[in-house]
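Review this chain:
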Amino acid sequence: MTALTVRQAAERLRAFDNVLVLTHLRPDGDTVGSAAALCAGLRALGKTAYLLPNPELTDTAAPYFRPYAAPEGFTPERVVSTDIATTALFPENAKPYAGRVDLAIDHHPSFEGFGRENVVRPSAAATGEIIYSILAALGPITAEMALPLYVAVSTDCGCFAYGNTTARTHAVAAALLQTGIDFQAVNKTFFRTKSRKRLALEAAMLSGIEYHDQDRVAVLAVPLSLIAQVQATETDAEDLSALGGQIEGVDCAVTMRELRPDVWKFSLRTGPRVNATRACALLGGGGHAAAAGCTVEAPFQEAKRRMLEAIAQTAPDFTL
């Protein structure tokens, strides 16, 4: 479990061939964009590289993923993971590779160091920023690499609106735009388009919202019954955790999504008063200081109680 610099990681990748790249459960723009860009960069070097098919891929992310999907029966010589903090986030078909990841590339403070060699930059707004630096060390950044990289970087910082956005984030985005990519289409798809089912989900979530801690903590629930009622797809339900953080006066938005009966996926979006990673770590999860998650197996009220208690432990001024 060796930590590498960006340049060392680039040299490792230059020596790799027949590479399989892994993405995480409920894949978002960062894991998909990072993985796709890495595949494009490796192929530009004449390497064989594919992405392991992800069964939870959404329609939004699919166009960036599918050109690189591994054919059935592909046997890799090397395995790389992108934007995965823990092997617990491996999809079922990735679990056989849990003990043989040659290089793990990630930006989460909660990264567990499962790769034989690892590149971790918690200061990066997205894993896409790290992939950009690695690919730049390998050669010119082409438009084919830049488009998924823009998806990776822009989605993980909320189109450059979240607090994790830095000057480096903008510099990387500017360099990507200089390749001539259609960034406006990406922005329209990811940030300015909502299906009618998505709007129905948001309306139901807001109508049932609960406030705690002097109205500074908002809890929004997405039970299976709501998904069924609206007939929503995974694409409709993508990134619902961004909704609560838009409410005035709320500095800790808790989104509870029921994955299976009495199995709740928590997503926290917080301000500086509440450390999201610390709260989620108390329940077996992790992430970033302002954005983290965990999974709790319990009935709704019990799961919610556990999360509120975890938040209270990280916010000394929490009041019921």
